[in-house]
Automatic annotation (TrEMBL):
UniProt-listed InterPro entries: EHR_sf (IPR035912), ERH (IPR000781)
Signal peptide: none
Pfam families in the record: ER
Family, per entry: Belongs to the E(R) family.
Organism the protein comes from: Aegilops tauschii subsp. strangulata (Goatgrass)
Top-rank taxon: Eukaryota
Coiled coil: none
Protein's recorded name: Enhancer of rudimentary homolog
Length: 94
């Protein structure tokens, strides 16, 4: 991900699964909310807030390893948002 237009803000994160990566993105957003509102004990947000956070990043993408072809496949911001929606929907149904 790259939070700003400055290329030096680019950060790479490594996760063991897509679900862990999606949880990581949610965690990044939650840390940002806590930094902005340190006095709020319980953070709440909806999918639109999370989408706005993702859209506000200069760049975000995912490289996902495909075991069949033994290579990493790139996925864009829209794919990440779709996967986040599916992931959070599953968590909400538990």
């Amino acid at each position: 991900m790259q939070p700003s237009q400055n290329r030096s803000s680019r950060t790479f994160m490594d996760y063991n699964s897509i679900n862990h990566a999606l949880d990581g993105i949610c965690g990044l957003y939650e840390r940002k909310i806590r930094d902005i509102n340190p006095m709020i004990p319980n953070i709440t947000y909806d999918i639109t807030d999370l989408y706005n956070f993702i859209d506000g990043l200069a760049d975000i993408s995912a490289l996902v390893y495909d075991h069949e072809i033994h290579a990493f496949l790139p996925y864009d911001r829209q794919w990440i948002k779709q996967k986040l929606f599916q992931h959070l929907k599953k968590l909400a149904q538990r």
